[in-house]
Design goal:
Shape: rod-shaped
Number of strands: 11
Structural class: alpha+beta
Radius of gyration: 52 Å
Helix content: 55-70%
Strand order of the largest sheet: 6-8-9-11-10
Number of helices: 14
Oligomer: single chain
Strand content: 5-15%
Order of helices and strands: HHHHHEEEEHHHHEHEEHEEHHEEH
């Protein structure tokens, strides 16, 4: 599959998942707003109904007061000045003041009886009207002076409010308070905090009293109540996010597998090239041995034998490099033979061997073995391969027409460690290459795939072995100028008994 097609499918799926997630979030947000509006409407309806109930309760209170006063006035045969006027009551009431209608006798004419009945009903209406007007005047005159705690009793307010909220479907806990004409709380229930974090709802009490009395209600669990009503949407959001994460992870895996496939293809091409050269040389030497003139010349036979031997070694070395990584991936270093060796001596011998290659190109290798304590517990053969691979890479990746200048140094650093530095003046490494040079099959691009021999396994093998030895390896570079590999290894335990036990 082409990379452009993968990117296209990834973009389409990403837009699809993003749009789906966006619409789900918008739907959830709209649902929450709708629930909040519905909740607020139910609460305000309950508050207004509670205020109306308190208003009716106050009217009933004044009606009862006037009835009691009328009953008292009948016993004393006079009406108090706070009641209806004497003229209205005398005109409306019967001589006995019992407020009963006096019906005409049977001997009275029909027309006269109708007129008497109409007059009696008119008087009774005027009496009731005067009584109601007097009650209204009492409410307007006396209500403002009545204490707020009597007009809005906390027990009655709680009962009315609870019943009204329940009737509107709001059954969550609530707290409330009542403010006086100055905006101060006359009383408030336990838990009422008047905090900006908790939304409050309010309604005016006794709007005709001329004072700004308000009933304020809070719902501490309002947010959780609204959220619980839309929580069925949360699983769909969670599933969408899970699918999105799986999709992204799958895309990453696809690109990794594609990159690995390209690296393996590159590896196979390079391996074919690396094996083809020694095989062709050996085959050519074998054909030359069939020539009688060659067989008769001892020098020619010796030369061909040397060629076959060297190419066989080269071929065997390449095969070993291919097998190195798979062997140590499986064995985990269990087949290594650890001994305490002097790293300075090993590096000195390898540097002397590589000097011939460097001097052949007009360069040199500088050795500065400054480490006083260079005894490290490791596998000598594989540590030799590590240093050899690093020096060999430094010589291979040189700038054209530039004499190689290599420096190998050792020194002791803190925490009982030995530091080894190998610096060159080669082509250097880009930042993107620094992160990947220790990966299997990865080879730094040099323009021509086959201009530098190798399978991309050398540095991966180096890192694996350094890790098994208990050390670390890092690389620093300035592209086009130099590269430097830094290895840190723990020093061997100086206790001879410990060394003997481990051996």
């Amino acid at each position: 599959m082409k990379k452009s097609l993968i990117w296209l499918l990834t973009a389409v799926m990403a837009i699809t998942f993003g749009s789906l997630l966006y619409f789900q979030i918008m739907y959830l947000e709209n649902m929450v707003k709708m629930r909040e509006a519905q909740f607020s409407e139910n609460v305000m309806r309950s508050l207004h109904a509670t205020a109306e109930m308190l208003q009716r309760r106050e009217t009933l209170h004044y009606l009862e007061e006037d009835v009691r006063m009328l009953d008292a006035s009948e016993g004393d045969s006079y009406i108090d000045e706070n009641q209806v006027s004497s003229e209205t009551l005398l005109a409306a009431a019967s001589p006995s003041h019992n407020n009963k209608i006096s019906y005409p006798s049977a001997t009275t004419g029909v027309s006269e009886s109708y007129q008497q009945l109409q007059t009696t009903l008119r008087r009774q209406y005027q009496y009731q009207k005067g009584l109601l007007n007097e009650i209204i005047l009492n409410i307007l005159r006396e209500a403002p002076t009545r204490p707020l705690l009597e007009r809005a009793d906390s027990v009655e307010v709680r009962r009315y409010l609870r019943d009204e909220l329940a009737g509107n479907g709001v059954t969550i806990p609530f707290t409330f308070g009542v403010t006086d004409a100055y905006g101060h709380y006359a009383y408030q229930t336990r838990g009422f905090v008047t905090s900006t974090d908790v939304p409050a709802y309010s309604a005016v009490l006794f709007p005709n009293a001329g004072a700004n009395y308000r009933l304020v209600v809070e719902f501490p669990t309002r947010d959780s109540y609204i959220f619980s009503s839309v929580r069925f949407i949360i699983p769909t959001l969670a599933f969408t996010v899970i699918l999105l994460v799986i999709f992204l992870y799958t895309v990453i895996l696809i690109f990794r597998q594609k990159k690995l496939s390209e690296m393996k293809t590159d590896f196979i091409n390079n391996m074919t090239h690396e094996f083809k050269t020694p095989i062709s040389t050996i085959s050519l030497a074998a054909q030359m041995l069939d020539d009688d003139s060659v067989r008769k010349s001892p020098n020619s036979l010796k030369h061909l034998a040397n060629v076959i031997g060297e190419e066989s070694k080269r071929l065997r070395f390449q095969v070993e490099k291919v097998l190195q990584m798979s062997v140590y991936d499986d064995a985990g270093g269990s087949a290594l033979k650890f001994t305490v060796v002097n790293v300075n001596n090993i590096i000195y011998n390898i540097a002397n061997t590589q000097k011939i290659k460097a001097e052949k190109d007009g360069g040199r290798i500088e050795v500065a073995l400054d480490a006083i304590d260079a005894d490290v517990r490791l596998d000598e053969m594989h540590f030799t391969n590590v240093i050899f691979n690093l020096l060999d890479n430094a010589l291979k990746y040189m700038k054209p027409d530039t004499a190689p200048e290599l420096k190998v140094s050792t020194r002791n650093v803190a925490h009982n460690q030995l530091e080894i530095r190998i610096r060159d003046n080669g082509i250097g490494l880009r930042k993107e290459d620094l992160k990947r040079i220790f990966e299997k099959f990865y080879r730094v691009p040099t323009g021509n795939r086959h201009d530098v021999k190798g399978f991309g396994l050398g540095l991966a093998y180096v890192k694996k072995m350094v890790s098994i030895f208990g050390g670390t390896i890092t690389v620093e570079s300035d592209f086009g100028k130099w590269s430097e590999f830094i290895i840190k290894l723990p020093l061997a335990d100086p206790d001879p008994d410990t060394d003997a036990a481990e051996e």
